[in-house]
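Quick one: structure tokens for this chain, please?
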Amino acid sequence: MRNRLFTSLLAGLAFAAGVAPASAAVTLRGLLLDDGPRAGWFERYQDSRQGPETVDKTSQTFKVGADGGLDLTGISGDVRVTGGGTEIKVEATKRVRHRDPAEAKRLLNDLRVEMNNFNGRVEVRTVYPRRSSGRDRGISASVDYTITVPPGATVSVHSISGDIAVSGVRGEVRAETISGDVNVDRATNLALAKTVSGDVTARDVGGAATMVLSTVSGTVIGSDLKVRSLVAGSVSGSVRLSGTEIERVEAKSVSGNIDFDGPLARAGRYEFSSHSGNVRVVIAGSTGFELDADTFSGSVRSEVPITLRTMGRDDRRRGTSNRAIRGSFGDASALLSIRSHSGSVVIAKK
């Protein structure tokens, strides 16, 4: 079901962009697991429906200096970017399927990768073959990219179907896809990691201002994050944050759990909310905080000794049923706000 939905979505996006239907044909690579018997079955299914896979590889190197930039826009295929060296090296693997070998070769030649260097900023674009006749119906085409950039380079990657991985980059990183996972590690200036259907993972990363980790259908995982402000969210998945050093956190989920494990900054602000999931906050360090936690139909429990503040009649009613806690711990220098509609809330000390 998920594959059929995203196939329709991709075709719709391509149509909206003014691309001919055949040029918008994409493979389902990245939507299924790459190992196991199911993957083997799917390859055989593609062979029978669309023909065997035809592959062609191309590469190009650009001299950009220590602080160049990469701007890549793709439609279908995985993208991997790694920091290292003083040049930008792009390796592209084109893949086409068609039942007619001659037509597959023609389509492979028409599937182009355009690369240009504009004053140290390398732009990479995928140009898909257009339909020449009714014989092109049912083709699939994708381009996988493996790219090396200087560690100080800025990286911007946009895709529709495929995974994105970025590692070892100090420049600003922005990575977006519609169907696929986004993984970023060892990046000191991550601004955005976003997908619609897939997981978002950020490990050992930092940011100068605000970092956004977002998915609609998937899980957000952040560990060893160092940033002034973090916005993390999922609609149908969980949000898990650990080992973070952040002054301001806004984490939301509609139907998933939220887990936070880390220290609070003095004068920091931390907001966690889930409609139908549980929220668990494990606090490290000695920073005091003001707590405002409640749930509509779950329970609220604090393993940290909270000095309760005077409550009104409605608050007292909710408090006696373990559905709200309002008070402070220590010097109350940080603000901790937790909301859940039908889940439970736990505040613990590490």
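The mean pLDDT is 85.
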